[in-house]
Amino acid sequence: MKRIYLFIYICLWLTTTSYAQAAKDSLTLMAGEAVADSGGVAYGQPRWMRAKGGESRLEKIHKKLNPIDTTYIEPQRFNFTVMFQNTNTYEVYRLNTSEGQSITFAPEPSIKVGPYFGWRWAFLGYTIDVRHLDLTHRDRTKTEYDVSLYSSMVGIDIYYRKTGNDYRIRRVTLGKGINTEAMRNVSFGGLTSSIKGADIYYIFNYRKFSYPAAFSQSTVQRRSAGSPLVGVGYTEHALAVDWEAFGNLVDKTLGQPVAESVIDESLMFRTVKYRDISISGGYAYNWVFARNWLMAASLSLAMAYKHTSGDLKGDRFRLHDFTISNINVDGIGRFGLVWNNTRWYAGMNAILHAYNYRKSRFYTNNMFGSLNVYFGLNFGRRKN
């Protein structure tokens, strides 16, 4: 069923950012930059947002968050936009032990398409998962929300992902002499996971470098520029595996009862949950290699402090090994290619998150991301 959710209006007032995106199966919502009309008061503003004189409070807030050097960055010139976007999401979990055993799980990638319509700083649309057009068979346990807010100075990523039951076993390594090729790409519904969190980062060279130009098309980068980034983040992870079902699948697929005697007990947890607090630093660069063209890339690495708890089987791996704090390295990458002549625009971008948790006997790697391909049209030129 197609669903359209209204973004909280006050959030737009306070953030006055250049881009926001949210999705749950068939939902995407975006917010463009806030701009006053020719009379100096933004449409739809209540009186408490209006300042004395010709400039509104909202406009003042927007200017403070988006000071730019117009020799490097061209601001948006239009009131309205329409866009069509294809979104592809992917995730993977890898579980490893010090004994050399590993299991990699990943669902089928989601492929969504949908239209959008924007007015100044409000951008609303929806997407449909084309892999599950038959709603009677749609996986209702899978939920995704992604919101990105970009201004010249500050960026925010907010995300929530709860997996469905469409995981497949991509690879299994149980030790020498055990051929597990027959288990490759076998469906497995016994894994559930969720991740929720937020990252906020500060852009140092905000007058010359524009994240919105690369990821929300609300400005145009006219000259190449880069900037260091610093940020903080918080995430909560949860992972559960039905190891009895996995063992039965191993025995059935391999044709012999090997699971109980072979699988390392370090993997025999029922649930693992951990909280991740991180401090990150990185660099982003927008390369204007031709007129109206932009290639963008940024990479941030984070020192992440993790507090983890688990429920493990057996005495070989004690519970307190999972409840102590730990520090690991996480990462986030953003990449984009854009053509934008201010009226028409098209391009693609990808955002990837990677998380690691490591102990002496057991470690996990989790990666998720999305690839967006889009094209759109701006119209209704602003008066000033």
Description of the structure:
It is a single chain. The protein is mainly beta and 384 residues long. The chain is built from 5 helices and 19 strands. The strands form 2 sheets. The chain has a 17-stranded antiparallel β-sheet that branches. β3 (78-97) and β4 (102-107) form a beta hairpin. The longest helix has 12 residues, at 243-254.
State the main characteristics:
384 residues; mainly beta; two-stranded antiparallel ribbon; 5 helices; 52% strand; disordered N terminus
Task: Spell out the blueprint of helices and strands.
Elements: H1 9-15, E1 28-30, H2 57-65, E2 73-75, E3 78-97, E4 102-107, E5 110-119, E6 122-125, E7 128-129, E8 143-150, E9 154-162, E10 167-173, E11 186-187, E12 191-203, H3 211-215, E13 219-221, E14 225-241, H4 243-254, H5 259-262, E15 269-290, E16 293-312, E17 325-340, E18 344-358, E19 362-381
Antiparallel strand pairs: 1-6, 2-13, 3-4, 3-5, 3-19, 4-10, 5-6, 5-7, 8-9, 9-12, 10-11, 12-14, 14-15, 15-16, 16-17, 17-18, 18-19
